[in-house]
Design brief:
12 helices, 14% strand
Length: 271
């Protein structure tokens, strides 16, 4: 289905739900007047209504009835309860998107009426600054057009790619948990700057912008990171000395192990 003229509803307006609502409004892919949201916390709804002029309610059924697309932005522990309460309001013309971590499409589909179109998405916390890395997997009843629409929605808050659901644990380990792997890197780089005499604030700004700039350079040039590294690394220079120390410390293996460990934990939680 095309997003033109469609209305989207959010059940749950926590950090991720609110970030997606703001991203969609800012991108204009669905007007703010076509966005509905429900939550048990009235303060969150009030803030969204006052800042974005979206439609808010504490009634999940009202959101479902008024929306063509329903985004489930609730914690995995309460997802089944929410699904049970709204299933009969989800008519065949509606599509459901779940961003509940670790909950498989089969589980969601089994809690809803036969034939319900479901798409699963794994975004990450950077959605709060419109720089999320999201992966989209379509359910058995969802069409390719449904998946394309979901990609467009999540591209409004960063980058989004389509994957097979069996790769969602890998996505969780890489981009879902990944921001938490990078924050200590930024802090450690800043610590090195402080050690060499920079004040803390300046060191943090330089470290964070360095990480942001390096990532943006790779994405926009489409040049392999190894080649980009070589562009900065002069023979006998400062950079190769630093890279040598990183390799001595096993940086590559450490990051690979972190992603693999997080992916394995995601598999355990999904059982």
């Amino acid at each position: 289905m095309s997003l033109v003229g469609k209305k989207i509803g959010f059940i749950g307006t926590g950090k991720m739900g609110s970030a997606l609502i703001r991203g969609i409004c800012t991108a204009g892919i669905i007007p703010c007047s076509g966005i509905y949201a429900s939550d048990v916390f009235e303060a969150s709804l009030k803030e969204l209504r006052e800042s974005l002029h979206i439609n808010v309610t504490q009634d999940n059924i009202e959101v479902v009835r008024n929306s063509d697309i329903i985004v489930l932005a609730v914690k995995p522990q309460i997802l089944k309860t929410v699904l049970s309460s709204i299933k009969d309001a989800i008519t065949p013309d509606k599509m459901v998107i779940s961003i509940a971590a670790g909950v498989k499409l089969e589980t969601i589909e089994s809690e809803l009426n036969e034939g319900t179109r479901v798409v699963r998405v794994m975004p990450n916390i950077a959605a709060t600054v419109a720089e999320a890395a999201s992966a989209v997997a379509q359910g058995k009843n969802a069409s390719a057009e449904d998946a394309d629409d979901v990609l467009r929605i999540f591209q409004s808050v960063g980058s989004a790619i389509a994957v097979q659901e069996n790769l969602m644990d890998a996505v969780t380990g890489l981009s879902g948990s990944g921001p938490a792997f990078i924050f200590p890197v930024i802090e450690a780089m800043a610590d090195g700057g402080v050690y060499e005499g920079l004040d803390r604030n300046s060191a943090l700004i330089l470290a964070a912008q360095t990480v942001l700039g390096a990532a943006k350079m790779m994405l926009e040039t489409n040049i392999h990171p190894g080649e980009l590294k070589d562009m900065v690394t002069s023979p006998g220079g400062t950079t190769i000395r630093g890279i040598y120390e990183l390799e001595e410390s096993g940086i590559r293996a450490a990051f690979m192990k972190a992603v693999i460990a997080s992916s394995n934990r995601s598999k355990e939680l999904g059982k």
